[in-house]
Amino acid sequence: VQLVESGGGLVQSGGSLTLSCTASGSPVEDYIIAWFRQAPGKEREGVSCFSRSEYDLYYLDSAKGRFFLSAYYAHNMMFLQMKNLKPEDTAVYYCAAARRTVCTQQMAEYDSWGQGTQVTVSS
After folding, report:
1. Is the separation of the CB atoms in 93 and 19 below 8 Å?
2. pLDDT for 67-102, tens place per residue?
């Protein structure tokens, strides 16, 4: 499956953004779907993950209550709604997909990655 993100940008602290990820080539409902982010000088980290088959949903502790992953399988898309953004959320955000049944934060387990979209939160 091929993935393309959109929706990044510059937002003030406390603001909101919704990232979109459009899949092609295969139905994304056959994969677990996830969002990762990588801040400058830091390792890529898993932000959220969802397995439709196991109804397994994961959020990074710092994202709980502020970020919400959703999917529109009929259009082969997934989203990351981000609210109450903080400067420490500044990063390049990636969507990813893996042929697994249970969510994982291990990057090597993911078969497909988008190109990334920049999110910058100003203080």
Report:
1. yes
2. 999 999 999 999 999 999 999 999 999 999 999 889
